[in-house]
Amino acid sequence: MLGVYDFCGHYEWTFEWLRQTGGEALVRQYWDEAISQDSQRHAAELILSKGIPGMIEYWGHTLEDEAAGYYCTTSDAVYRIDMHECPSKGFLIRNALQQYHDYCDHCLGWIGPLLRRAGFVVDHQHNHASRCWWEIRRADDPTPPSEPGGLAGEHDVRLLPDWDQTDKMDTYRRANDPDDKLP
Amino acid sequence: MSTEPSPLPYRDTKPVGAADFYFAINATFRFLLQRFGVDGLRRYWTDLGTQYYAPVAAAWKQGGLPAIAAYWRAFFAAEPGAEVQVREDDKTVVVEVAVCPAFKHLRAHQREIVPCFCQQCYFLNEAVATPAGFTVRVAGGNGSCRQTFLARDDATPPQDFSEIREATC
């Protein structure tokens, strides 16, 4: 049977199987329909009904369960995550597993459509080395992303000396889709 | 992550997986079933067993039945909520699943389980066992089952799919 201990490995493998079977469009449909709307329906229920307090409730539970190294900063207007050690990307790196070209896209692939339905947008960067940050605001809030340290202080992942691996960095502004990646 | 030798091909830093990932496994099966039908879902399981789990097949080929037994003991020790016994003799390894961890978690959270969910354990395990010179027969399902691994030979009748129960919520 498929287990949850090595879930991130066969999850990542599945992305490439889908891409080879039905192209990138099928991968996007999978992230939205299977993960966002089906698997993570408990996240949708919390975030659609409660907004930022629902995000606090959902990610607090989930990231603890997955033994993530992270820090959250919240206010009435913004929910920020600084991911210092992504458990799933870390698992893939440690086990030398890569089939799909960009595993990190899956997060925005399922969270982006959910946040769109809830009326939020995301400023986000990931460095493909288990580190990323997210700032989630209401879609009608024009506030730009914070400067490094501006919201999360010393916990801001952008202050880490090995954060800026510029040849690998992906950047999003007010995004809801993995293909909103800035050039 | 432990550096001790393990029958598991991919190792994590935490000893047991996060049970909510069973939601994603079940949802993945539902998505593939709706898109490609049961034949497409079976192809996915077979490809996954052949490709992603190729290191397991190699270990079984090298280590035989003891390696199969060791794998399943380690596998279920890392699955949250599993209640499983693994027995082996000189001809078979029998995995007795008293409490399937996936069913336990999905039912606890009122998730609709894909009816053919239990067929994964035949198609996936057969894809791993075949290149190692073994085959598997599954009986039961819907929360508890017996999986028997034995050497491939012409005398073993094919899997009887009526022996694998459909999942109910």
Would you give an account of this structure?
The complex is a heterodimer of chains A (183) and B (169). Chain A contains 5 helices and 5 strands, in the order αααββααβββ. The termini of chain A are far apart. Chain A has helices at 7-39, 41-50, 52-65, 87-94, 105-118, and strands at residues 69-74, 78-85, 120-126, 132-138, 170-175. In chain A, 45% of the residues are buried. Chain A has a single domain, classed as Muramoyl-pentapeptide Carboxypeptidase, domain 2 (2-Layer Sandwich), CATH 3.30.1380. Chain A is an alpha+beta fold. Chain A is 43% helix and 19% strand. The model of chain A has no long low-confidence stretch (mean pLDDT 94). In chain A, strand 3 and strand 4 form a beta hairpin. Chain A is globular and about 40 Å long. The longest helix of chain B is centred in the first third of the chain and has 31 residues, at 21-51. Chain B contains 4 helices and 4 strands, in the order ααββααββ. Chain B is of the alpha+beta class. Chain B is globular. In chain B, helix 1 runs parallel beside helix 4 (120-129). In chain B, strands 1-2-4-3 form a 4-stranded antiparallel beta sheet. Chain B has helices spanning 21-51, 54-77, 101-108, 120-129; strands at residues 83-88, 92-99, 134-141, 144-151. Chain B has one domain: Muramoyl-pentapeptide Carboxypeptidase, domain 2, CATH 3.30.1380.20. Classes of the chains: A alpha+beta (183), B alpha+beta (169). At the A-B interface, helix 1 and helix 4 of A face helix 1 and helix 4 of B.
